[in-house]
Amino acid sequence: MNTGCPNLKCLKIDNNLQKDGFYFRKNDSRRIQRYKCRDCGKRFSKSTGELEYKQKKRRINNILFKNLASGMSIRRCALNLNIHQITVKRKLIYLAKKARLHHAEYLEKIRGLKKVQFDDLITIEHTKLKPLTVSCAVDSESRMILGAQVASIPAFGKIAKISRNKYGRRENNHKIALEDLFNQIKSSLDPQVEIKSDKHKLYPQVVKKYLPEAKHRRYKGGRGCVTGQGELKRKIRDPLFSINHTYAMLRANINRLFRKSWNTTKDPQMLKNHLDIYIQYHNTLLI
User: Fold this and answer.
1) Domain boundaries, position 194
2) pLDDT grade, residue 12 (50/70/90)?
């Protein structure tokens, strides 16, 4: 229920509200309470101001949330639910906003995590000539995902020159994404947290900036094995198993992160939205 009148010029005092009947909402078959403000005469309902306000297909929100976090593409979700692809895209944005609010509440509740792992997953934006990095951090003990950020990076290796010739120099926002990630999760970590990562050159300076008392342990990366979407390593005891297993789960459950797939990300923000939806699904239903 709303805490007061939605009119910004009103005093928004609960005591000045009076019930003003009901209306029947067809899209989910519920009776919704109406209210009236005694001060300004503004009429509104219990659903005014909610993220779902004015939605016409509320019944599919929950099933679409599960489908998007279970390896289904936008086109296939639209086909199975008999709705338009644009509807799925709009609901993906709505579900991501709702997931971010839920995750922010989750981070507020947890405090003093003592073991964390983080790393980067490489994916693409439409073509391999335009790579993206997904910086992610997980709790080593519970494998709960603490946060994920998406950033553009320049192409590297044999295709670097081809990428520059075709698309020009590409911005490297990797460090910005790492700083956003640690700024998001630092309040949930113990000041002397044990952090594990590989030997990427950017990691020590970012960890030292946000968690100067942390114990940062770095390990040499290993070759990927066939199982786990190539994210699990060919080691008897992988010191970064929690983060690698999480990346294998991302590869297996987010359609646009599949390997050898024709479903690619066209907009990095949509990848971020999809990741936020999966994080809520992973933390609340899988773990």
Assistant:
1) 68-286
2) low
Residue 87 and residue 14 share a domain: no
153 and 23 within one domain: no
pTM for the whole structure: 0.92
Residue 202 lies in a domain: yes
Same domain, 167 and 84: yes
> 102 and 171, same structural domain?
yes
Residue scoring higher pLDDT (2 or 177): 177
Task: Indicate whether 173 belongs to any domain.
Answer: yes
For residue 177, the model assigns a pLDDT of 97
DSSP for the chain, written as a single string:
--SS-S-TTS---GGGEEEEEEEEETTTTEEEEEEEETTT--EEETTTTSTTTT-S-GGGHHHHHHHHTTT--HHHHHHHHT--HHHHHHHHHHHHHHHHHHHHHHHHH---EEEEEEEEEEEEESEEEEEEEEEEEEETTT--EEEEEEEE----GGGHHHHHHHH-PPP--HHHHHHHHHHHHGGGEEEEEEEEEE--TTHHHHHHHH-TT-EEEEE----B-SSGGGTSBS-SS-TTHHHHHHHHHHHHH-GGG-TT-S--BS-HHHHHHHHHHHHHHIIIII-
Q: What is the pLDDT of residue 260?
A: 87
Number of domains in the chain: 2
What pLDDT does residue 1 have?
46
Determine, yes or no, domain membership for 62: no
